[in-house]
């Protein structure tokens, strides 16, 4: 018993070796376990001369602060979660270089697709306080800021200006968009038709663009893009003839609210007031849009059509918008049933047009206030054997 007692009180060499072995194994596990990334702040140009160099060096979770100056470069964020923020007094300017890198092909116009700032391959980027500016190259579909390939973009308090080529670029080769979230089917990306993305565009100013101020789109098949566009200011105007749209919603589910859109111009041959046979420039357009989109509490003025829903049956809630001085129509519902609700329309030829050119179309108009139109408050326009019906309901 005494011997056993001594043995239990004093481990032998073999016991010590076992304990040391366990401790060593634990130590090894601790040594090789990956440490959580401590978010860093990178400053441009203090730490990196260009924004792209800082993006390349950053890890997911990092913040890049950009001091005011002009950076003539293309910025691409791929697969990272980053915050890009202006710092100091004034706005850093990202200016389009003479050459941009194509990442897709617009098969409808047979031109490459490029962007000054591109958020791609599942990246999640919060970007605020910048100015993104052109002019942009001729014969390319160029955007100031683009999100695609399941990326998420939170863009705020940013100006996107002069997204148009300089003359003498021909009108059929002149393209330029302010902000693009998602791409439609006619854009081929890595062999796929279109590309989905999501995000929030708030307090962004888009001025002087060639074709579209803000484009919210995606592929017609699969999960749609989902985007909020809120409290933005979009102002048209182009030196080269164009048919502009302030904000367009394609194959995306969007909330478009609180925006101020004006002066979208249509200056191409074939522009005019007939929605069946001529082109018009709308302030806000829903084109091939699936159900679930809200277009509400926007102010649209001095365009051809304030809000234009076409080929988008029952897509949208169009409500409580203020539409002033839009040349031809305040609202058009064309080739697919739609509903309006308590919009205020002042001036122009027609307050609300219900148009049937390819399918019977009924517009249900509830409680809209229409004043001072030169032709009619409501007009039915139909063609080619299809019937347009406007159902006006009070309150």
Work out the oligomeric state of the chains in this entry. Answer: single chain
- Percent of residues in helical segments? under 10%
Q: Strand portion, in percent?
A: over 45%
Mean pLDDT: 92
What brief labels describe this structure?
395 residues, 3 helices, mainly beta, 13-stranded parallel β-sheet, 14-stranded mixed β-sheet, disordered N terminus
Spell out the blueprint of helices and strands.
Elements: H1 2-9, H2 13-32, E1 41-44, H3 51-57, E2 63-66, E3 70-72, E4 75-78, E5 81-86, E6 93-95, E7 104-106, E8 111-120, E9 124-128, E10 131-133, E11 141-147, E12 152-156, E13 159-163, E14 177-181, E15 183-189, E16 192-195, E17 198-202, E18 205-209, E19 212-216, E20 225-230, E21 233-235, E22 245-249, E23 252-257, E24 260-262, E25 282-287, E26 293-296, E27 299-301, E28 305-310, E29 316-319, E30 322-324, E31 329-334, E32 338-341, E33 344-346, E34 350-356, E35 361-366, E36 369-371, E37 376-382, E38 388-393
Parallel strand pairs: 1-2, 2-5, 3-6, 4-8, 5-9, 6-10, 8-11, 9-12, 10-13, 11-14, 12-17, 13-18, 14-19, 17-20, 18-21, 19-22, 20-23, 21-24, 22-25, 23-26, 24-27, 25-28, 26-29, 27-30, 28-31, 29-32, 30-33, 31-34, 32-35, 33-36, 34-37, 35-38
Antiparallel strand pairs: 7-8, 7-15, 15-16
């Amino acid at each position: 018993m005494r011997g056993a007692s001594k043995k239990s009180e004093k481990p032998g060499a073999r016991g010590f070796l076992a304990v040391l072995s366990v401790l060593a194994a634990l130590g090894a596990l601790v040594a090789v376990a990956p440490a959580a990334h401590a978010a860093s702040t990178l400053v441009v140009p203090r730490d990196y001369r260009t924004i792209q160099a800082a993006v390349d060096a950053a890890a997911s979770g990092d913040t890049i602060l950009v001091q005011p100056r002009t950076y003539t470069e293309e910025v691409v964020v791929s697969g990272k979660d980053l915050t890009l923020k202006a710092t100091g007094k004034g706005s850093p300017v990202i200016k389009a270089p003479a050459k941009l890198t194509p990442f897709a092909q617009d098969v409808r116009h047979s031109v490459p697709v490029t962007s000054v700032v591109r958020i791609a391959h599942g990246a999640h980027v919060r970007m605020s306080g910048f100015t993104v500016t052109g002019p942009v190259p001729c014969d390319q579909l160029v955007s100031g800021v683009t999100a695609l390939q399941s990326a998420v973009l939170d863009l705020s308090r940013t100006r996107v200006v002069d997204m148009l080529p300089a003359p003498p670029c021909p009108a059929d080769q002149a393209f330029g968009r302010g902000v693009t979230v998602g791409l439609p089917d006619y854009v081929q990306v890595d062999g796929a038709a279109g590309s989905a993305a999501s995000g929030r565009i708030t307090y962004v100013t888009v001025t002087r663009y060639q074709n579209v101020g803000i484009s919210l789109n995606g592929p017609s098949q699969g999960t749609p893009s989902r985007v909020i566009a809120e409290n933005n200011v979009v102002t048209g105007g182009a030196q080269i003839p164009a048919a502009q749209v302030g904000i367009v919603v394609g194959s995306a589910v969007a909330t478009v609210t609180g925006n101020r859109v004006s002066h979208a111009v249509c200056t191409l041959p074939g522009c005019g007031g007939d929605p069946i046979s001529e082109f018009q420039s709308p302030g806000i357009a829903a084109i091939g849009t699936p159900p679930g989109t809200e277009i509400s509490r926007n102010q649209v003025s001095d365009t051809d059509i304030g809000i234009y829903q076409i080929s988008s049956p029952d897509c949208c809630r169009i409500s409580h918008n203020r539409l002033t001085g839009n040349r031809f129509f305040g609202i058009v519902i064309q080739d697919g049933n739609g509903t309006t609700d308590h919009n205020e329309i002042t001036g122009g030829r027609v307050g609300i047009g219900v148009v049937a050119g390819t399918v019977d179309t009924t517009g249900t108009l509830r409680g809209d206030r229409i004043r001072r139109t030169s032709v009619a408050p409501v007009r039915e326009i139909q063609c080619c054997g299809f019937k347009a019906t406007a159902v006006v309901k009070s309150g």
